[in-house]
Structures are given as C-alpha cells and as structure tokens.
Amino acid sequence: MEAHAKIACMRVGFLLGAGVSIPVGMPCTGELTRRVLDTTGYTLHPSRGFAKSIPGMRGANDWPVKQQDLGRFLNLVRDDCERYFDAEKKQNRQVNYEDIFFVASQLVEHLSQDYENPAMQPFAQSLDERLKGSRLHSSLEEVADLACNYIQDVVAIELKAVPVPVTLNHLNCLLDAVSDTGFSGCDIFTLNHDVLIESALESREISFVDGFGPPDGDFAPWSPRELEKNARTLLLKLHGSVNWRRYNGALKKTLTADPDHAVTANGTMAPIPAREIPVLLGTFNKIRDYFGQPYFDLFASLRTQLLSIGLLIVSGYSFGDKGVNSVLTEWMRSGEGRKMFILCAEGENCISHGRGAIRGLWNSYSNSGMYIHPAYLSDCNWDSLVEKYGLK
C-alpha cells in the first residue's frame, strides 16, 4: 500500500478481538467449540455452576443424567446449524459455540415465555421429539437453560487458564501506541474476555480507566462514573471479563486468583460470588444484552469516546458483531477525515468474511478511509506503522 496523507487526530483507538490472544496459546473459537462439545471434561458443581472435571471430584448427584441430555442437545443443535449454513452455501462458515449458545438462549426465552417467538415453536417441537428419542430426562427448557449456563462457564474456565509460561510481547505494538506522546491519548476497546491486555498494561506500569473504582482488598467495585474521567487511556471490555463477579448482586472486578475466598481491605471475607459470570456470548442476542448493565454504560462510553478519535486500528476482530458494526459504521460516516486501519494477514478476506455493514463500508471507503495492513497486531511495530502511513 502506498503512503497517504497524514491523519490529523487527537486520539488513537484500538478495537481488538479474540485473534489478538491466540499468539500466546489462548484457545481460538474452533478450539473452544470443541471443548464445549466434549461434556466429559467438566462437572456440574453440587451447588452452583460447572468446574473442570478432576479425577475423584464429586459433582451433583444428577450430573450423569443431565450430562447425557446436555451432550445430545449440543450436538443436535450443532448439526441443525451446520445444515442451515450448508443450505445457505456459507462454505467458510463453521458452527461455533456462539451459534449454539444463541439457539439455546432463544429456546429458553421462547419456552419460558420471556420473549415469545411463534417462529421458534416448530423448531422447538422438532428438537423435543428428537431428544425424547434419546431418553431425555429433562424438559427441553431445562436442558436448553443448562446448555446456556454450561457454555458460559466452559468459555470462562478455558479463558481464565492463561498458558504458563506466557510472555506478552505480542502486544508490544499496542503498548507502544498507548505510550506514544504524539497522541493525546490511546483508548482500547476489546471484545475479549481474557485479562491479557490489562496484564500487559500493568507490566509497563501504564495506568488506565476501565469503569471500576479504587480497590477494596481483593476486588474493585463497578463504578460507571469512572468512565467519565479525562484519562489518557480508557479500556472498555465490551463483552465482559472472566475476572468479573457479582457479590450479593454487586458487580466487582476480582484482583485475586481465588474469588471464592476474596476479602475486603479490613479483612472481612466476601460472600462466595454467584454462578453468574457477566460475559456476553452468542450472536444476535448480544444486541439486546447491550441494554443491560454494565454493557449499556460501556457502549455509551464507546460512542462518546469515538467522537474524539480520528484513527481506529482493528485487529483480531472478524466483524461478526452487528451491534459493534453499527457503531463502526456510524463513526465512519459521521465525521470527516476519520481513518480505520485493519491489521490482517489475510488481506481483504477479513472484509469478505464480515457482515454486510462492513462490506458496505469497504465499498465506500476502500483506501480512502479504510486501509488493510497485511499483518496481525502481534507482527506489527508501532513506529514502523506510524512512519509508513504517516499516522501523525
């Protein structure tokens, strides 16, 4: 790509997806899907949630029965999704755990009459009949609800398990951008649930605002007013994080590896957190979830912060989230001189595999507002990018 005119911008922003964590051995979407479908690797805790299966570990008494129903349900939904994608001739579209979660959540919402959807009834009846043929011990609503909890827990379990030893050199380009005084600030918007980015920032003693207040012992309380601070670096985890928990209903970021035994600054033992882990999974259901807390505040902050950003760098994101894509489209079309750089070794494939809104943006702004640099974030050098493209 040829160099182009310099970009006049006060702040730079990064939008990052799961792909930026893969270089250090974090599981990719395909691997997470494989683990989700293998129910033998996990055990239902007698009182709450799922845990990694350990020899000799006692699970809930009814887990063997529920495990049979769950495994059959997950594979039937996976097969139905595959048939749909094949019929639509989406040859590059592989069914993943997000697709399965979306279907399961729709079933729960319909069968519980929380969000009635007449179009779901024929599918629910068909799935129920097929499950009964394999000795279903739970109702369809029960097994669908169990599937949602299971998928959410498994993804969180696997993304908490940071490979050891781990180096964070793959994020050097990001860290150098954050430290670049040529910009008034650098904000990070990430869809990742893992804690690699904040660990990398802390390793360089880079301060950031993420919506959580000052620490109180082993955790920091959610405080959306923090997002209003005039900070040099804002870190927004738009889909939640594996180290977020709810203690007595209050959202907190845990600062310890053992959240079940967290203590306050005065030494008081905190109650064991609820099973609920507020991370967003699924596909189109996320759009509705963005209206709940803390996601409503996070997305409001994203929209506000983008107003001051003239250069947005995207990496590791497949452009599959319709809510995020709508924000990107609005940002790109509503201001003069805005630039989006996509760091992707696959070139324009990252656009062709994305949703229609992003393909539409590319048709309008290709090489006049949107640019593709043929390398992933882990293989980029910030100073080289700045010099090659005249970013400041």
Concise structural overview:
With 392 residues, the chain is α/β, with parallel strands linked by helices.
Primary descriptors:
392 residues; disordered N terminus; three-stranded antiparallel sheet; Rossmann fold; 2 domains; alpha/beta; six-stranded parallel sheet
Could you describe the 3D structure shown?
This protein is of the alpha/beta class. The protein folds into two domains: 11-26 and 166-389, TPP-binding domain (Rossmann fold); 29-160, no CATH class. It has 13 helices and eleven strands. Strands 6-4-1-9-10-11 form a six-stranded parallel beta sheet, sandwiched between helices. The protein has a three-stranded antiparallel beta sheet with strand order 5-8-7, with no helix packed on it. Helix 2 (63-87) packs across helix 3 and helix 3 (97-111) packs antiparallel against helix 5 (140-160). The longest helix has 25 residues, at 63-87. The radius of gyration is 22 Å and the shape is globular.
Shape: globular
CATH class of the largest domain: Alpha Beta
Q: What's the CATH topology name of the largest domain?
A: Rossmann fold
The number of helical elements comes to 13
What is the radius of gyration? 22 Å
Give the terminus-to-terminus CA distance: 17 Å
- Provide the β-strand percentage band: 5-15%
- Work out the count of structural domains: 2
Helix-strand sequence: EHEEHHHHHEHEEEEHHEHEHHEH
Structural class: alpha/beta
> If strands are numbered along the chain, what order do they take across the biggest sheet?
6-4-1-9-10-11
Mean pLDDT: 89
